[in-house]
Amino acid sequence: MMARRLIPNLGQWSSRIFGVECDKKSAVYFALRVDRQADPRGKELKQLFGDGKAFSFHIHCEDRIQRSKIYELLQDKVSSIPSTDCTIMDMSSFLPNAKQSASKGFLLTYSSDSPLTEKVIEDLQQVEAVSVCSYFQERDGMWWQKHLSQKGGGSEICPRYCITLTEKPEVCPTVLNIINNDVFYSFEEAYKVLVECRDIIPESQAVLNLVDQRLDLTERGKFPVIVIEGLDATGKTTLTESLTQTVNGVLLKSPPESLAPLRKRFDCEPPLIRRAFYALGNYITAGQIARESSKAPVIVDRYWHSTAAYAIATAVRGGLGKLPAGGSEVYRWPEDLLRPSLVLLLTLDPAERQSRLRGRGLAHTREEAELEANNLFRQKVEEAYRRIEDPACVIVDASPSPDKVLQQVLLLIKNKCHL
Ligand SMILES: Nc1ncnc2c1ncn2[C@@H]1O[C@H](COP(=O)(O)OP(=O)(O)O)[C@@H](O)[C@H]1O
Ligand SMILES: Nc1ccn([C@@H]2O[C@H](COP(=O)(O)OP(=O)(O)O)[C@@H](O)[C@H]2O)c(=O)n1
């Protein structure tokens, strides 16, 4: 409906919707229109853009590897401004319901003079592929978006457009952003990312070689395959080792040992690249699972639930309420990835987990604020774990002694897998 009203020669902006994630309320969506007409919901726009100045930053670059690198730079730049000076909100620009169309960016608002903020805005206007827009209201009540940097925009983009609020799209941009950027739902999609980064990350070829040598099997053998999931320090290593011994099984993990030397290299890359690396690790492990499960029970320390849950929790900023709702397609298992017989999620009271982390000599120097952020992150990872479907995970209370946890898990395996 809205698209008809939009300027036809907007080029890559044509029919785009802008979605702004507000911290305290649900997202606000707006589009640009050709005719000068004040939006009757001007008050809501004022709430969004504030009383002072408002600027948005988006990336325009065909190459998604470059795009992910520039996004990191953008993120670093805007988060270098003290939060007392401005408000920063996530802002996506996307074509309604079109996968791969979302471009992530930020909306920045501020009211009192802030040389630091102004310097960042100025600097970003010089960055190739970053499109900077300002937002302002005219006396007649109309809101406008004005392009400041022409570099990323191209010559077709005219300098200002009238703004109108739009309805919430069927598929929200967070979901569009996650699919094939943070979580991959097929081998091919993850593989393509590493192929695309070969020029800038030579180690990608080593990963691809290992992946090419994998056993391309998607069926498990006749023995059960038990995956143990959970946050750091919930007792996965302790349990997987004792469980493997008890059932006379084979212990595997994802990422597999063969990728261990390359892990550090990919951990410092943007999510697109980092997550593709972990996704491919699951396919290598899957081949090992298929082979070993024809001979003995297989215990796996982390698998696809970890890859997806951490990726989703990191991609979604803000609180638990910002996670895609249960049943969303982001939680579906990749069709071409071997499914385990049972996935167990070890859960632990946050204080107990902290104490176990401390026991391992980590985390006792963390700042209070970081702990708070981690607490939110922990909740999101756990919730994402719980929302993943087919197979969904079975929750295990990991607070009793190691032996009690083992007994509890053996009972579950006996009941669910008849081992
Ligand atoms: N059931 C348990 N009760 C008490 N401490 C435990 C239990 N399981 C593990 N631990 C301890 O907690 C710490 C983290 O366990 P670990 O198995 O390394 O977790 P993960 O592999 O999930 O990071 C270790 O110091 C371990 O000895
Ligand atoms: N199958 C897996 C395993 C780990 N990971 C990533 O690796 C990190 C956790 O791995 P880790 O080795 O530090 O965790 P522990 O096994 O030490 O608890 C998470 O940030 C995940 O993003 C993944 O994406 N997929």
UniProtKB/TrEMBL annotation:
> Among its keywords, does the record have Hydrolase?
no
Annotated Gene Ontology cellular components are:
mitochondrion
List, alphabetically, the Pfam families matched. Answer: Thymidylate_kin
Question: Where does the record place the Thymidylate kinase-like domain?
Answer: 228-408
Q: Which UniProt keywords apply?
A: ATP-binding, Coiled coil, Kinase, Mitochondrion, Nucleotide-binding, Pyrimidine biosynthesis, Transferase, Transit peptide
Major place of residence: mitochondrion
Its GO biological process terms? pyrimidine nucleotide biosynthetic process
- Sample GO molecular function, one term: ATP binding
Could you tell me the superkingdom of the organism this chain comes from?
Eukaryota
Task: Tell me the enzyme class.
Answer: transferase
Question: In the Enzyme Commission scheme, what number(s) does this protein have?
Answer: 2.7.4.14
Q: Where in the cell is it found?
A: Mitochondrion
Q: Does the keyword Lipoprotein apply?
A: no
Q: Name the reaction it catalyses.
A: CMP + ATP = CDP + ADP; dCMP + ATP = dCDP + ADP
Under the heading InterPro entries, the entry gives: P-loop_NTPase, Thymidylate_kin-like_dom, UMP-CMP_kinase_2
**Alphabetical list of PANTHER family matching this protein:** THYMIDYLATE KINASE, UMP-CMP KINASE 2, MITOCHONDRIAL
UniProt family annotation: Belongs to the thymidylate kinase family.
Q: What's the protein here called?
A: UMP-CMP kinase 2, mitochondrial
Q: Which organism is it from?
A: Coilia grayii (Gray's grenadier anchovy)
